[in-house]
Design goal:
136 residues, mainly beta, OB fold (Dihydrolipoamide Acetyltransferase, E2P), 2 domains, five-stranded antiparallel β-sheet, three-stranded antiparallel β-sheet, 12% helix, Chromo-like_dom_sf, Chromo domain-containing protein
Amino acid sequence: MEPDFREGDQVLVSKISFNNLKGPKKMINSFVVPFTIIKLIGKNAVEVRPTEDISRKHPVFQEQDIVEVEDSPGPVKKIIKARKIILNGKDQRQYLVRFKNQTADKDKWLAEDTIPDENLHLGRFRASRRAEKSHQ
């Protein structure tokens, strides 16, 4: 089976691979900022170009601990609605996000920690929901 990744691809590495990330673990995204693959090692591992933050960490990760960076649809325009789902046996809140200069068919359900500028947009969304409830 061919590996899913190639040299030069941008990938995110699971936070499980790190024990030196700053801040509360619950507040850190599941995957850490993009790294560039510089070498494929066998069928199941990759070597990434280390950033300054992880310069002392061994730069080889198993394929199961990385995900490819998706092309971003752009900046967030607004959050439209929220839902709760069960993912891996745990409740997770997701938000339907509309992106600037995109049509409604490009809206995506995203977990709270994956929304760009989440505090700003979630604050606006929650304020609009409170305003709607007070007018009813």
